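hey so i finaly got around to running the thing on Vesicular inhibitory amino acid transporter from Nothoprocta pentlandii. pasting the sequence first so u can double check i didnt mess up the copy paste, my clipboard has been acting weird all day
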Amino acid sequence: MATLLRSKLSNVATSVSNKSQAKMSGMFARMGFQAATDEEAVGFAHCDDLDMEHRQGLQMDILKSDASEEGAEPSLEGDIHYQRDGTGPLPPSASKDAGGCSELSSQGKPKITAWEAGWNVTNAIQGMFVLGLPYAILHGGYLGLFLIIFAAVVCCYTGKILIACLYEENEDGEIVRVRDSYVDIANACCAPRFPTLGGRIVNVAQIIELVMTCILYVVVSGNLMYNSFPNLPVSQKSWSIIATAVLLPCAFLKNLKAVSKFSLLCTLAHFVINILVIAYCLSRARDWAWDKVKFYIDVKKFPISIGIIVFSYTSQIFLPSLEGNMQNPKEFHCMMNWTHIAACILKGLFALVAYLTWADETKEVITDNLPSTIRAVVNIFLVAKALLSYPLPFFAAVEVLERSLFQDGNRAFFPNCYGGDGRLKSWGLTLRCALVVFTLLMAIYVPHFALLMGLTGSLTGAGLCFLLPSLFHLKLLWRKLLWHHVFFDVAIFVIGGICSVSGFIHSLEGLIEAFRTNAED
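ok and heres what it spat out for the 3d tokens, dont ask me to read them lol
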């Protein structure tokens, strides 16, 4: 009897000790410190998804203990924000007691190498929007080339300091990862007075950028098809409507598995197209108009070119998730260096060679300058790439809207758009269809690729790539920064702000004028 009593007391003491330890660990995890136990490895601090899994496991410890005492099974509301690559809440069955990064990655997402991370960044900053860069050289001359280099340097630097904002020193002086996303960084900067304001600003900027990207895909599809078959009695607006009809099934997407299969082929096809354009331009090297490249700028249109160049480098919004999924996060800086150096060289050469070939005849989308025999083939491939690329930003925008407005627990503004069985409700599907139609209406009334790209780059591109990273870096790591880092951050914030405001004003003026012209027609 005494032995049984001692055994029960020992079990109770162990249970209380474990529960207390879990609560303390959960408290330190929410404060940003990784309180490692005998079953946990410090590698959690260096992995994005694994860190979230660790925190969720600690919370599940407490909830399961409480449920076992009360006979109920409470629900868990994860504190996880959306990232562009589709990372989201892990299932409650996620293991919390696995050891390090490699062991957990075998159970969850496989970690990526620095080369694979570099490929993702390259896809983001070497997309089909480089087709508008020669048009930027048309209005900027050599200064436009300088801006292509300058934007690469600045975006590489701000990407690094954005990742630095994810880390802090714990009580032992170790650098640990205490934040998971861009939204977390923004919320940390606005805390404690406005703990969610920063995240809402970043989410709004992200939604604007994603929706504008969708609009640009519709615009470029209509533009390319119209210029590929000018003899057909079909206007650019009609081609945009046809493209949107093809894209309407995107409203029914539940995941991107089917679309992702084509992403690699689309990217390779785009590189082939760029090579074909450069090859054609090199074949006309004897006729290059070097005298057309000037040092003067078009004051009215050059600010639009700034937005075009900045938009072609936007990748900061998904860098936190990308770095967290790397096998060796220490290679992130090196990866950023070589990807942006390669992008700078390729973009500069592509823009200069294309402009030298057509000079003052350079159009908003450079493939429209190709001879009709080559243009049709190249443009059809580009349209296919645009249509297959559309679901990615569309699905991301839908995810952000649904999570922030319909699925954010008690903070949601509207009831959940999904039923108890996980199926999308009819009005939720209507909202998705409305978003597709909205991109069509914008593409019809403002069918100007360069203006829309310049507006997006000046508004969200400059904000997410220049202004916010430098501001967050100063706010979170002020006491640890060297003087030259402070100087760089302040300079980037000031220069980025000036470029953003001027580009936004001129792009908006151009869009208003274009809207009025189309309304009159």
